[in-house]
Amino acid sequence: MNQKQNPISNLLKKPGAQILLFVALAAGVQLLSGGGILPNSLVYALGNTLIYAIVAIGFCLLLGYAGLASLGTAGFIGVGAYIAYYMMQELGLPFILALAATIAVSLLLGIIVGFISLRIEGIYLAIMTLGLSETIRNLLMALKPTIKIDLNNLKLFGTPVSDTGSYYLILGIFAVLMLLVANLIQSPTGRAMLAMKNSTSAAQAMGISLMKYRLLSFVIATVFAALGGLLYMVHVRTMTTATSTLLTLTTSLNILGGVVIGGAKSLWGSTFGIFIIYGIQSMFLSKIQFFQKNPAFITMITGLLIILVVMFFPGGFAQIVWELKMKWQGRKLKEKEAAHES
Amino acid sequence: MFATFVSTLLSSLLTICITCLSAFAVTLIFKTSTTTNFAQGSIAALGCYVTADLFKKLGLPVWLGVFPGILVGVLSGLFVDVVIFRRGRSVNPVGKQIITMGLVSIIFGGIPLIFGNPESIPFEPFYNAVAAGKKPNLFVPFAGGELVITKHSLICLGITLLVLGSLFALLKFSKWGLAVRTTASSESTAELMGINTHAVTAVSWAIAGGLGVLAAVMYAGGGAKIGVSFMTTIQVNAFLAGILGGFSTFYGPLVGAVVIQLASTCVGFLATVPGFSGITRWNMVIVYALMLIVILIKPQGLLGKPLVKKV
Amino acid sequence: MKADSVLRIQDLCMYFGGVKAVDGLSFEVKPGEIFGLIGPNGAGKTTVFNCITQFYKPTSGQLLFQGEAGGEIDLCKKKVHEVIDLGIVRTFQNVEVIRELTVLENLLIAGHRQFQASLATQALHLPRLKREEKRIREKAEKVLGFMDLMLYRDRYAYGLPYGILKKIEIARTLMAEPKLIILDEPAAGLNDTETAELAGLIRRIRQEYQCAVLLVEHDMGLVMDVCDRICAISFGKLLAIGTPEEIQANEDVRTAYLGHPGKED
Hints:
Chain B is mainly alpha-helical. Chain B has one domain (2-229). Chain B is built from 13 helices and 2 strands; from the N terminus they run H-H-H-H-H-H-E-E-H-H-H-H-H-H-H. Chain B has a two-stranded antiparallel sheet with strand order 1-2. Chain C has a domain at 7-98 and 177-258: Rossmann fold, CATH 3.40.50.300. Chain C is 35% helix and 23% strand.
């Protein structure tokens, strides 16, 4: 413990600094593409990936910390997307109102799912949330079979928002939510959730209210997912889709897959996992002709990765990185000892 | 009116059979491997593609082609248990769940690669014998009206009763059944008592895979369009049937399956009542909502036994 | 009302369907007392603990705890996670240590109720949270020092030896300003040396924290050595209450344990 530490690596241990670095990188990509060095489509794909990363952060807290497996993500994203469509397209209301409505509705939904999780545990919960997601999808289908949006004159506080603007909006929201969750998991709340995940009895005996923390984790996951849906609409701007195909089980599985591949206990790991599932596909693979012809191949690779990671690295990429780091540190320590002895 | 109602109920016979088969498969795996197999539906779809492809390319009749399809289902089930689960580093139930989800992605991606066109394959005409000029339906006079039953659903009912009946008999009377029931109540105890639990879970996965394909072929034969995810709804219903009926018994999920499908049909029937015509769109929403309420009131399921948490 | 007892159990009944796990049990634990609860397997000892800590809601009967102000508090009106606020803390038969947390963090979990920082304060990591965290960390380190666990402070609980895990559980109870510590088979799985140490530890805890200790234990050597008074139960019913000597001499207790009276000699 008394060895001197590099001030830079010390600073990088703080979530705030990590996020700033990430934002700087993401902004850099945008600036380079604005300067014509990187293609525009790359920024668009990165924005898309960031949206799913927001969903993943909430899911990471739910699965990795609270230990609750949910398959309802697609439904929750759908709620946000539908509210965005209805309020901004049908009613022509400003973005801020749609944002408020999304948060309010998903908050309520999160509380309901949280209550369900108190009654039904473990494996059953995954099935119930899947059922709920299907219910929501059917509900949206019944309400409006096809969605057609055209948000090209999107405004925020009265000023028009360009494509670049919405990219920064997404990046900003990602950064803020990331910071909040990173802080939460390093506080009593994060510990309480882990305690609940490991042993509900011990958690309760130590004064942790299951109700409070189950509701909290579901509210966070649900609100983040709905925000993802809202931002998705803002980002895509124009589209016509049947609600039956907009959000299916595949979306829930992809989010889950990203979080598991990246490491359910690591926020950056989960972000990285989402990047693998959505980012690599939309940014690079879709440029290669073979994958353009066979998009199904990418789905297969995702599935294979999920299985391999769960089989051999239950902690995901974050665990692989951690194990490598430990090995490296161990070797360095040995080298030091060897140097002492000689 | 009454005859129409009974006819409507009878029209759900096929989906009831399919959901029952799927629910039994899900329960078998749930009880022996303490996990839910989310790939149940996609393995079923895979086997069904094989049957359909054999018909399309070689003209193999469905009653024959269903066997290679079932074989693919059996092998896929075995593959999951023997190759994936057993090689993993300490895979817990949630990990197993996630693995089966990964498998869904592989099959979803794999089907279009193997079978080319991910669009549905026309499957109905050669089975229902419409093309051969035979009538697909039976008409039975009943209560001043007429009952309409498809021959297909009657055949499927027969197969389902036969298959499930023999499986229940096996569970109850055979050595294998005893081994399954022992493994279901405690895997480690079963192992200590000299039961080869590996064999028990492997056979369960094989049976589940086969049942899935059988159900999928029946479903496609009834007119459902084959697609990579055409069994998803059935599978979700089968899971929910398990929860509704309670996973603590083998027959509970079957009761759940029947209840869910009948409820859905009843809501559908309401649409024929004047003033309720719009209700069809809300069918699934209403059924799911009702089910959620039932499960919230009785989390252990309709026929389940409450568990007291041991501290 | 008797004010000289920390915990008063009156006619406690806990039925599971037709099974009477606890059937009309009454006893009292006095302040600063080490009280043993013994009985053959399945006598309902852990069920009594689960009733006290509200994991089970008793079928009938009263569980009264001596409150701060002197009045008695009805435990049945508390929720499971509120029981710790009164200073009632327990350990578990099958060691429930949070494996994904370090030893120190495991102790912080027990101090969870002492954090007053709001959710927003936590999400923003405001100075108030840091102050609280520092205070409770120091307290946890003091407990670790007392329990001789400082060596393991930053180790993850996953993979630590059984004896250490048991110690962590006891250390956790000390975080909550305990008035009544409930130990469920603390010596199970420990070797002779560790059991001997445990006896000393229980006494030191009572001395240092001025609290009562209620323990269930099968190791009769430990129970007879460390307890001031013992309550023996069988099939959920009271057999005898008394000093270790009285219990050892009690005919009913011998029958319950050995089946045949007098066969021992």
